[in-house]
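Fill-in record for Baeyer-Villiger monooxygenase.
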Amino acid sequence: MAKHEHVRVAVIGSGFGGLGAAVRLRREGITDFVVLERADSVGGTWRDNSYPGCACDVPSHLYSFSFAPNPDWPRTFSGQRHIRAYLEHVTDTFGIRPHLRLGHEVRKMTWDSEALRWEIETGQGSFSADVVVSATGPLSDPKIPDIEGLAEFPGKVFHSARWDHDYDLTGKRVAMIGTGASAIQIVPAIQPRVGKLTLFQRTPPWVMRRMDRAISGPERWLHRALPVTGTLRRGLLWGIRELQVGAFTKHPNELGLVEKLAKANIAKSIKDPVLRAKLTPSYRIGCKRILLSSTYYPAVAQPNVDVVAAGLREVRGSTLVAADGTETEVDAIIFGTGFHVTDMPIAERVVGAEGKTLAETWKGGMEALRGATAAGFPNFMTVIGPNTGLGNSSMILMIESQLNYMADYLRQLDVLGGRAALAVRPSAVGAWNRKVQARMERTVWKAGGCESWYLDSNGRNTTLWPGTTGEFRRETRQVDLSEYEVVRAPKPVKPAAAKTRAATRKQEAAQ
């Protein structure tokens, strides 16, 4: 018989969001919870993305939990290996291992309106939970475009987030599809050893120099000996980015100076005017995420690299055909084409109070109150939910704000007592979303003249937060019960009352 376990809280995912939720639950004195993870280890996107050159574009001391500072970051911008090790360290330090259920991919979650709990089906048994915290994250499920003939390609094909480390790229003819954050790290990492590298670029990114360096031994010693110095360093990094927010969200024209610096960066590295024209964007800087690399342009300028300024249209055997008709023979195709961000697959597996999936509810666009709760899904919260992403700072700041909201949500349930649930009012979700979308109109992400993964199929930006992280922290400090309906479990029918009702129904049927 398949095992079944009931818990107060079920957390889905074990990346920064899921582990952060687990730590916060323990700090709130809640130990009756599980963390359901589909893989065989923790780490989320920092476990899945192990491609050559993988690193973070947010400074290390800001890309870590405030409650778990790491004085031993080796570089100002740390690589995937060190970030994953940090998450393993957090897991052990805060006693999360006993709560982990690895290899438990969630197949379906259904709200039981009678019992006021979530029924959860996984690949290794079932669970039920009073509250579900979904922390699967938007960068979980790779997106590969539907390309005609791709299935018949005789060579190797993989996504950057599913890197095949057993495949040797040495001397191979390789196609890199896409020019996003992953691609600009992969290109310089593999360019020296491949035979030929063809970069298929639909839209060029803006790339600034990456001011990365090794953190010295004395610096690390100082952060260990005087932890306040690490706190001050984190605070300085945070403050600088808070001051930049206005240019992105209110005054995009102020980004003109940054754009000039980015153009100077291109001119310094790319001497060929034809290639320079291909690599120079025509939209306002910041409309897409500004990428950081000091090695991308020098790599692209090498003789064994070709830039095709068009997307991949068709595959004919070993020949790749671009939208502009360019044909290229390759041995391997690497997709750096991003993730299912505005159409997360987990949403298809969550069935709410009205029998609709979260994907059906979000068909017209994702929306959730304060990025956390969606109408029709009682006692269900998302971490890194709709409109909580950032264009210039650390997502860890947003995650910690949402964990504050989660903690107060659970406190409110405790105060209510008995079998109860909180169902967010559709009017509250609507009011919040209208306010966010109204502010979005003046941001560089909407007014900058580009198409990006920030926008959904309807052209709405349902991913980013149009304000400072400090403002979001204030908005999620506590739950406003006026935005919720308190749902109580139906009272059991007494035997006498049940008999009376049955007799009444019998009489009505006879009439």
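KEY FINDING: The domain at 4-42+96-141+340-488 is CATH 3.50.50.60 (FAD/NAD(P)-binding domain).
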